[in-house]
Amino acid sequence: MSSRTVTAQDLIAAAEKTTGMNQWGEQDFRTGLQLLLDTMQREARLSDLGRERMLSRIDGLLCNRLRIYDWRARHPEVAQQTITRPIFILGLPRSGTSNLLSLLSFDPAHRVPRMWEIFRSVPPPSRDTYETDPRIAEVQNQLMSDGFGSEGLQATHPFDSRLPEECGFIFEHTFACMVFPAYINIPTFAKYAMDDADWRGVYGFHQQFLQNLQANYAGERWVLKTPEHSHFLPDLLATYPDAILLYTHRAPAQIMSSLASNITELRKLWSDQVDPKEVAASFLAAEAEGSRRMVEARKDPAVDSHFYDIEFQDLIQQPVETMRRLYARFDLPFTDATQRGLQHYADNEAKKTHGHGKHKHSLADVGYSADEIDTAFKPYLDWYARKHESFRLPSAR
Questions:
Q1: What are the structural domains of the chain?
Q2: CA–CA separation, 175 vs 28, rounded Å?
Q3: How far apart (Å, rounded) are the C-alpha atoms in residues 276 and 280?
Q4: Under a CB-based contact definition with an 8 Å cutoff, are residues 98 and 210 in contact?
Q5: What angle, 0 to 180 degrees and rounded to 10, lies between the N-to-C axes of helices 8-19 and 48-74?
Q6: Strand pairing partners for 247?
Q7: Rg of the chain's alpha carbons, rounded to an integer?
Q8: Which residues, in sequence order, are CB contacts of 326 under 8 Å at separation 6+?
Q9: Which residues does UniProt assign to the signal peptide (predicted)?
């Protein structure tokens, strides 16, 4: 089925036929799905392989969504599951967010969503078979088939079905997220996701998704991550009013070339026509807007009270002590098991969070100077200088 002719209803009907199910939950996803298909045709410059991969990915998301709502219908008690004091990580991309998510995953009190269970969510994972579930291999094989094992991409970010992963992959099931514009060049869809989509509904789905995942295997609290959270703080806090929000800080001029390199390699899975400067321009605007929205939201003391700020260098150089201060700030138990888990990560696992191989990137590749990036992020940098008078983010100059 070609993306030049396929419609949202075509894919919905195909997923219903595959699964034998027809319960979708809220219907807003149909708007985003049709827009995604339209912009795939008009804007994305997909290769034939990229088109095939994207349609296959959409089919998998639709089938997984159907299975989630079918399972909820057959197990109505899951709606009573509570999500208590979840931790959300929402710093800029390439500012240590993956490192922080992986570090916190080594506290045995914590539950993190892993790639395999995000895309093969039903039946909900069991604690007894969590490390041996056959879906781990299924999703790993799919990742490799879709090109996520490529040397260039793995150098920028490790992809593995067993690793903790972003909420963005959960959001994909709503077809109202910024992950699709990372995969492919679809600026019209990106604007819809950032400005027009119903994010209260997106977070409602997110909450239901977590309820399902923890039905047979719950931790004391969830640890969750994606830079997208910065854009939609009112909706996040309306859904999770007791959320703990962690913001990692690193100079924007130090991260933009790395981010553009990462997204460029990702887009090569779907298109043979990828322009790093086009990538940089779109994501510079998007991430600057996310940081501006975060600053605006934190002008409200009630919102600001949810936050804890973490410097990139502190996270890299003294991860366990940085976490000890975080736990103290929110009165979280820092047990002997917590200490052992975090120290094990710092001593043995931290390097695995980074890409495999040499990741080469520079501002020259993306057509921006450090001054231009600082100008784009001026509201964030000015706010940071005022809030943390003793520390000013280093520039990339």
A1: 8-387 (3.40.50.300)
A2: 9
A3: 6
A4: no
A5: 50
A6: 309
A7: 20
A8: 246, 308, 310, 332
A9: none
The stretch 91-97 carries a mean pLDDT of 93
DSSP 140-172: HHHHHHTTTT-HHHHHHS---TTSB--HHHHHG
pLDDT digits (tens, 9 = 90+) for 243-293: 999 999 999 998 998 899 999 999 999 999 999 999 999 999 999 999 999
Residue partners of 48: CB distance under 8 A and separation at least 6: none
> Quick one: tokens of 362?
């520079």
pLDDT tens across 18-50, in order?
A: 999 999 999 999 999 999 999 999 999 999 999
CA dist 164 and 161 (Å) reads 8
pTM score, two decimals? 0.94
Q: The tokens of 82 are what? A: 């509570």
What is the chain's length?
397
Q: b vs e for 2-36, b when ≥16 Cβ sit within 10 Å of the residue's Cβ?
A: ebeebebeebbebbbeebebeebbeebbebbbebb
Judged by phi (left if over 0) then psi (alpha if -120 to 50, else beta), residue 63 lies in alpha
